[in-house]
Amino acid sequence: xxxxxxxxxxxxxxxxxxxxxxxxxxxxxxxxxxxxxxxxxxxxxxxxxxxxxxxxxxxxxxxxxxxxxxxxxxxxxxxxxxxxxxxxxxxxxxxxxxxxxxxxxxxxxxxxxxxxxxxxxxxxxxxxxxxxxxxxxxxxxxxxxxxxxxxxxxxxxxxxxxxxxxxxxxxxxxxxx
Length: 177
Ligand SMILES: [Zn+2]
Ligand SMILES: [Zn+2]
Description:
The protein is of the alpha/beta class.
């Protein structure tokens, strides 16, 4: 069995992964699957958000056929999270945490879920750095609910890599400023 305690909340994450699949398959949510995934993502990852900084919460979900895996904003060790040690600021940004998109890719590797040809749902549009990781991982489609990191260089990179991407309106109250 894989020891995933590196991320501190293994058991919760496992429950969340199953919960999303069951919720979606049971059809209790929105009829639009993209809206459904993103709304679930907000609900599921907001309590896990470990940074003290805005814009609120971020989370990512990698979907490949019937398999899903979460990523959320977290420091590599829960013993030194923003909640206990404060944020680690660099040029106006907190850099203590790993962004949720990269964490989702890392968790996929640890759990043996392929990322090639997968779709990623992310609460916020991936930043430039995460976009590079997404391309490396072979993810083909990225949908997000807030365009917080809307940069031309990110769009150029996604276009060059032929990644399908777009904003899905779920009424997110942050991340679209
Ligand atoms: Zn922080
Ligand atoms: Zn990022």
